[in-house]
Amino acid sequence: MTRTLITNGTIIGADGRTAGDVLVDGETVAAILAPGQASALGITAAGSDVRTIDAAGKYVIPGGVDVHTHMQLPFGGTEASDTFETGTIAAAWGGVTTIVDFAVQKAGEDVIESLGAWHDKAAGNCAIDYGFHQIIGGVDENSLKAMTYLVDNEGITSFKLFMAYPGVFYADDGQILRAMQNAGESGAVIMMHAENGIAIDVLVAQSLARGDTDPRFHSLTRPAELEGEATNRAIQLAKVAGNVPLYIVHMSASEALEEVAEARHKGQNVFAETCPQYLYLSLEDHLAQPGFEGAKWVCSTPLRTKHEHHHADLWKGLRMNELAVVSTDHCPFCMKDQKELGVGNFSAIPNGIGGVEHRMELIYQGVVNGELSLERWVETCCTTPARMFGMYPKKGVIAPGADADIVVWDPNSTTRIGVNDKHHMNMDHSAYEGFEIDGKVDTVMSRGAVVMENDTFHGRAGHGQYVKRGLSQYLV
Ligand SMILES: [Zn+2]
């Protein structure tokens, strides 16, 4: 077995920072050693089999865990442009060592067969470890039974429902309640896309009829109130179902955050994530760019106006743990042939932004900007996602026995994001073109194997293994 010593660095965990060395043996962390202990034990002696990675002046953190990605997702007549191979390689470049993607069941489809289709796409193709949530697009007796089966047998302990997209993934309140009751029995978490899709569809039709077809109308027809309303409704349904764990995905609006904060204050098992796009990008500066440019930033929930206080509130929510997790909702589409499907009709633009490569960088910039502590960066991007979705302490922490998923982070270097700079996702543009980050992914280790080092990818498709997840370890 190969052993590796990551030495001289500062180890950052959700619970603090320490100077020390991390000893990796095979695929797992063997020990955390105090400075000098490795040489006292002879681990670094000449002739020993230990490879050394010098992390002097750098941070040593758990590998990133991105619990919201959509590789190869069929959407709006096309398919998300990253395969499990290209998307997980880009993730590795960004210091991410685990993704949880979404298997999709549509109404009328068999849940277990749909999961099989996602396993077929991912197996043997991932550069880092991966798990699945299951989307239930059609709640009925069969899919309810399948939910229990997946929890008990397949390591899938979270199910996503949609209050948006009528006719596609939409579940009505009765279906949502039934799925929540089912989750309450099996211990699963319900993930919710919380936007009032019925009302949104009316606004979209009215906008198109007026000739308001540019990309910016995507946001103007999905008002923050309808995210807040749906979030509240999901919270009440989860309460009625018996305080069933509820996790609101991709939160973008202050109105929704207030609902989650209030439910948490009352002791309900309600959690939420946001994504970098909602912390940094806006309706005015991105989605409303002239012509069709704004299509790059069409995603749901939408980017919000910078003239209200959504950005500041979401950062505050992250500090206060009203928002527990940062994920990306990575769902990349190229402009050419994909986003272009919506020229002249914003509602036909495939919804999604690619970001799996940049989450660690963008949230670290929040640390530099004084929004978050180093520990909170690690907690929201690595540790809590692992705990929330039943992968801890195998993932999300550097501790003896944990998988050796480790990132060495260089705070003294910089990263420039852009198609001609750092950009490994399979996209013809970057949502973060020109962003300068005060820090850099230096080295990435996935289960003991160095997959990225010296600005070179050393991993391989097929290294990544399926992670069977347990129940959430984050409940109150
Ligand atoms: Zn999504």
Question: Could you explain the architecture of this structure?
Answer:
- By secondary structure, this protein is of the alpha/beta class.
- It folds into two domains: 3-61 and 397-412 and 438-457, Urease, subunit C, domain 1 (Roll); 64-388, Alpha-Beta Barrel (TIM Barrel), CATH 3.20.20.
- The protein contains 14 helices and 21 strands.
- It has helices spanning 37-40, 84-93, 111-122, 141-154, 173-186, 197-210, 217-220, 224-240, 254-265, 276-280, 283-287, 310-320, 359-368, 374-388; strands at 3-13, 16-25, 28-33, 50-54, 59-62, 64-69, 74-75, 78-79, 96-105, 129-136, 158-162, 189-193, 246-248, 270-274, 325-326, 406-410, 415-416, 436-437, 440-446, 449-453, 456-457.
- Strands 1, 2, 3, 4, 5, 16, 19, 20 and 21 form a nine-stranded mixed β-sheet that branches. Strands 6-9-10-11-12-13-14-15 form an eight-stranded parallel β-sheet. A two-stranded antiparallel sheet has the order 7-8.
- A hairpin with a 2-residue loop joins strand 7 (74-75) and strand 8 (78-79).
- The chain is globular and about 75 Å long.
- Bound molecules: zinc ion (ZN).
- Zinc ion is lined by residues 68, 70, 329, 331.
